[in-house]
Every structure is written in C-alpha cells, then in structure tokens.
Amino acid sequence: MAQKLRIGVVGAGRMGRIHIENLLTISRVEVAAICTVLPHEIEWAKKTVPNAVVTPDYDEFIVSDLIDAVLLVTPTGFHKEQVLKAIHAGKHVLCEKPLAATPQDAWDIYNESLKYPSLKVACAFPRRYARVYTEAAARIHRGDIGEITTIRSQTTDLYQNDDFFVNYIKNSGGIFVDCTIHDIDACLFLIGQDITPRTAYGVGTARLFPQFLEYGDVDDGIGTITFDEQTVMTVYGSRNNRHGHHTMTEIMGTKGRILINGQPRLDQIDISDETGTRMVGPSSHMDVFAPAFKLELEAFRDWILDGAKVNFNLKDAAKAVSIGYSLMESLRTKTLAPVKEY
Ligand SMILES: NC(=O)c1ccc[n+]([C@@H]2O[C@H](COP(=O)([O-])OP(=O)(O)OC[C@H]3O[C@@H](n4cnc5c(N)ncnc54)[C@H](O)[C@@H]3O)[C@@H](O)[C@H]2O)c1
C-alpha cells in the first residue's frame, strides 16, 4: 500500500464539502477524485481540488485506478448500492451515517463486508472520535462504574426553518434513523460489548413542524430500547432547541455514573450581567464535534495505511439502523416493535 491514501469522495453537498475541506488539511491523504451530481457542486469541486478528477458518474468513478478508498456522503437511500459497488471494486469504504435506510440494507452491507476481510469498511460516527466520548468509554471499559444498567443520550438541534432543512427531513428516514442514530451508536460504543437489542418503543410530538407527521416523522422524539443483557437505553432527539445544539449522554452503572456534556457549554465562557449569569452554548453539532470529524478521517487513513486500531464498528452501525428503524415503526404504529438483525 502506498504511503499516501488516495480517496475519492462521493457527494459534495452539505456534509461532503466539510469532509473534502478537512481531507485537504490532513497529511498522507490525497483527494484524487470527486463524484457529485449537481452542476454547482461540480464547479465547486473543480475549483476547490483542481487536481482531482470530478465526475457525476458513480459507476465510472468507482472502478477508477486513481482511488484506493471512498468516502460516501450521499443521501442515505443511495448508501447500500454505492457501498456494495465500492466493495466489489476493491475499495475501502467510509460511509456517512446512517449505514443504510433499512435494517435489511444495513445488514446486507455488514454481511457482504465480511466476505472481503482485506477491505476496511466503516460507518462514520464522529462521537467515536470525540475526546469526551473516548475518555468516558475508556473509563467504562476498565470498570470504573461497574456494569452498565441504564444509558440515556440526546441530540437536540437548534430550531431552523429553512427550505433545505424541511426538504432534508422528508427523505431523512425519520428522527430516530437520521438524528438519534448518533446517540444509539454512541451508546453502543460506550457499552463496548456486542449486546442484543430486543424491543423498541418510540413516541413523539410535532408541534412546531406538524407537516412532519405527513411523512410519519416528528420534531421531538423519545425512544426506549431494551437489550437481552438487562441494559436499557433511552434516546431523545429534538429539532426545536431555541438555545442551540445540545448533545448529552449519561451512563448509569452498578458502581457509579458518567455524564458527558451535561451542560450545553461552548468553551469555558460565562457571561454575567444584570439578568444573571449564563454560559455560552454551541449553535451546531459542528461547534462541538469539528475536531472529531477530522480525527475520524485520520483514523480511517491510519487503519488502511498502518493497520492502526480504530473505534469504527460496522456491526454496531447495522445494529443502530435496526434500532432506529424499529423506533420509527413503533412511533408510527403506536406499539412496541421488535428489533431485528439480519
Ligand atoms: N455525521 C453527521 O453529523 C452528518 C451530518 C449531516 C449529514 N450526514 C449524512 O451525510 C449524508 C449526506 O447528507 P447531506 O446533508 O450532505 O446531503 P446533501 O443533500 O447536502 O448532499 C448529498 C450529495 O450527494 C450527491 N449525490 C446524490 N446522488 C448522487 C449519486 N447518485 N452519485 C453521486 N453523488 C450523488 C448530491 O449531488 C450532493 O452533493 C447523509 O447520509 C446524512 O445522514 C451526516
């Protein structure tokens, strides 16, 4: 393997641009090709990475000898087909979350990847590379808080009402598959064992975006998941935060508790004035996780070039889709849903 990883990025939209800009700052990586479909994105890609081959044709792109690995940042509905084509073309893959739109598709990817042990196939979840989460995981795995009994996690996003957001939600898969999938995966990472989810119960409200109900979605959702191993997980997602973004995770164990990001605090800045004292909070997940997005890309590079140990876990990624999907099913049917693995 060359000492430089030649990556092809698929999708130069909202998240793809961030990844491409990050890749350009990372050593031992070359953005050798970009595949994206919209004309203004093609123009942006050519200008931003003048040496890369830019094409809208995925089938031509994926068999190119110019790339060793692909970073997929396309809408979730394309992930299964694109990951499988990449594996079959002999490329390593880092695919944006969620791994796929349905449990069957996610497990098809996982099961197919097992047939190609020389290829590194991962799903991107930046919390696996955020310092607070890796520090908490290390403490949990060495037994600081005993056996995990209950774990709860939330992703609450700043209220936004622009066209991009409202259109994005239509095809996102629903709040538990698109948003709290980060919490589900983070909890699986913190638990650190291959535990078996059994049931999912999801409820929610759509007070600020009642139109979300038309596609079986909500703007605020709470889900509870049970596992065979006596662990209970609760996730909360919201698209209505007026005070900014707040990701928080709490892990209760038989001997103690760990709280991650208990307060929505950006840096150590507090403001005091005649109304009292308040902290300054992050407005987006990028304010909190920007360093983790870069560390994640570096980990993918080091995994391929150096065989480094990584926090990626494709089976957890498939399991997270199963859990998120069952929570959506439960929300829509108003019944307890089984969680299935394939
Ligand atoms: N990790 C995170 O925090 C995070 C945040 C946002 C989005 N995402 C994930 O990233 C993925 C993309 O989301 P987004 O918000 O960037 O969407 P987006 O709509 O802004 O971008 C999608 C991109 O895919 C391209 N595309 C569509 N079909 C294609 C095809 N057939 N071949 C090649 N390119 C194609 C589009 O041209 C566009 O550039 C989703 O899976 C989403 O869940 C992750």
In a nutshell, what does this entry contain?
The chain has 342 residues and is of the alpha/beta class. Helices cover 36% and strands 26% of the residues.
Number of domains: 2
**Fraction of residues in helix:** 25-40%
**CATH homology superfamily name of the largest domain:** Dihydrodipicolinate Reductase, domain 2
Computed CA radius of gyration, to the nearest angstrom:
20 Å
Characterize the biggest β-sheet. 7 strands, mixed
Strand order of the largest sheet: 12-11-7-10-9-8-15
SS-based structural class? Answer: alpha/beta
Q: How many beta strands in the DSSP annotation?
A: 15
Task: List all distinct small molecules, including ions and cofactors, that are bound in this structure.
Answer: nicotinamide-adenine-dinucleotide
Annotation field: number of helices: 11
Low-confidence stretches: none
CATH architectural grouping of the largest domain: 2-Layer Sandwich
Instruction: Report the sheet-strand fraction.
Output: 25-35%
Shape: globular
Mean pLDDT: 96
* CATH topology value of the largest domain: Dihydrodipicolinate Reductase, domain 2
**Top-tier CATH class of the largest domain:** Alpha Beta
- Name the helix and strand elements from N-terminus to C-terminus, one letter apiece: EHEHEHEHEHEHEHHHEEEEEEEHHE
Through-space gap between termini: 33 Å
Write the layout of secondary structure elements.
Layout: E1 5-10, H1 14-23, E2 29-35, H2 39-48, E3 53-55, H3 58-62, E4 69-72, H4 79-88, E5 92-96, H5 103-113, E6 121-124, H6 131-141, E7 148-158, H7 163-170, H8 175-178, H9 181-191, E8 197-205, E9 220-227, E10 232-241, E11 246-253, E12 257-260, E13 270-273, E14 276-279, H10 285-306, H11 314-333, E15 337-338
Parallel strand pairs: 1-2, 1-4, 2-3, 4-5, 5-6, 7-10
Antiparallel strand pairs: 7-11, 8-9, 8-15, 9-10, 11-12, 13-14
The structure holds nicotinamide-adenine-dinucleotide.
